[in-house]
What does this fold into?
Amino acid sequence: MQQARRTIVHVVYRFAIGGLENVIVQLVNRLPADRFDHVVLSLTDISDFRDRVTRPGVRFVALDKPPGHAVPLYPRIFRLLREIRPDVVHTCNLAALEIAPLAWLAGVPLRVHAEHGWDAHDTDGSNPRYRRLRRLYRPFVSRYVAVSQDLHDYLGRAVGVPAARRSLIANGVDTGVFRPRADAADPAAGIPGWPFGPRDWVAGTVGRLQTVKNQPLLARAFVRLVRAHPEAASRLRLAIVGEGPLRAEVESVLDAGGVRHLAWLPGARNDVAAILRHLDCFVLPSQAEGTSCTLQEAMACGLPAVATAVGGTPGLVREGATGHLVPPDDEAALADALWQVAADPERAARFGRAARQRALDDFALDGMVARYDALFSSGRAPARPARP
It folds into this structure.
């Protein structure tokens, strides 16, 4: 028997380049088109990131919310939900959680909330005000999704969400798009602006340049690395891909350290897969993480990783097997770990092969989509909700 169609409203704070937004793109493009319709609702704005949605007929709504609480927009959001009459509202991270009560009031049958990670204002979930908010909204959420074991445990321990209402669904990676270089000597001529040569050893990261991602730490560690190993400075290089408010600080660190000419900061890019394939080591210097999509993508590309041991990252990087974990905000430890990878090519290659296999075994995109399919299809059969 053919299943009834369901309409999902995906709610985010901003629809722009980011890990959780990329998950929504993957779900919209890959969930069965004969069973799901989609609306992307941004509380603020929608960037050209929407162009990554290739499925036709997707509706995008930007509410242009100013800073502060969304209360003034509540009547508009309620009317919108009554107009769309979705079967599922899918909110992402704390900034969108306040929509869950409105979805309940509008009679939406299934209200799914996903936690993708922390932000700079609450890097470990300990902020008392945010904990209270999560508990306050808990009765209005039907099911929770956590992208890492760390977040899954937090929802139970700190928010009081019963195990029966929690699902652990790791982010998925398209391992066909994100794959190792076919030839180790393959030139990067096809990457616009790529400044490095085939003999250079390139450490790199990808992500929005914001406090929680902490790219200035990587810049300081790179300066330390070059100074500690001047004999290798001729081949050590750094790529920091992304745009954001920390760009000036990163550039200042590199300038002060005299290594700006060894670094490439190309801004936000649409050719991340190709760039990752030409790195020699992926670095994740974050202050907090859920499950990093770019780290998973780098692993799928067969890269060894050096990452801070925060959030869900220790569940991805296996120390001494796929890379190295270091304490957060420790530039000396980060520089030392980078040198360990750079100085031992055979070990780095072994890390990369293990990382690729881990991605194939545990991060396959089809598995993630299948789990969301089952979740969005759960609950009572679609029915147009009666007016509360």
In short: Confidence is low (pLDDT under 50) at residues 381-388.
